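re: ur msg from earlier - yeah i can do the zinc ion complex, just paste it... oh wait u already did. ok heres what im feeding in:
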Amino acid sequence: MSILAPSILNADNMNLGSDIQEAIDAGVKRFHIDIMDGHFVPNLSYGPELVENFKHDFPNMEAEIHLMSNNLEVTIPAFVEAGADLLEFHYEATDEVEKWLNYLKDHHVKAGLVINPDTPVEVVKPYLGQIDQLLLMTVKPGFGGQRFREDSSERITQAKKLITDAGQDIKIEVDGGIDDKTAEIAKTSGADVFVVGSFIFKKGPIAQQILKLENVLV
Ligand code: DX5
Ligand code: ZN
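and the outut:
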């Protein structure tokens, strides 16, 4: 079963709550919250208070935190404390992947590992026993509204094989440039979770855009 995770990065900041509510009314159960630290990526977004407010106002919604930061000593505990249900951090951001995966486990937060489009997929192999989700970036992280990279399908297929060979039950997520066309391509290659930003929040009525995606994700 495919999961749709709208990224609020491209929602209307001045009407964030109502954009989120519209997506919920259209059937969404999980939101993807992009955290950018201005250092690991050349952009800044939200702090932990946004996540706290989100969980306060929408307690039944899953908060999936995509942490684009390499100051993990500070940022991981802060977002765990703020109420992350699932936290995914970048392989490229730390030499202590295992330590942070253990930290998330100890704090009962689902763990995700993220790799950039230029990072070889095999690097995740040693961690497959410890993660719930693998996020394959389909654009260079930092900004919404970029083009889906053509080599992504091959990477998804490769990741799917690694996971199957390891006998693990790990969801493959894609993030960046996903619309109704690229979602279909990614799904055919083996993706399970689809992060969608601008296509949902910038290209037409939210409910209508979600319906377009659901039509290809069923
Ligand atoms: C990019 C972020 C994405 C982004 C997706 O760094 O990780 O989640 O917001 O936006 P779109 O769907 O517009 O590419
Ligand atoms: Zn993201």
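cool cool. The radius of gyration is 16 Å. ping me if u need the other ligands too
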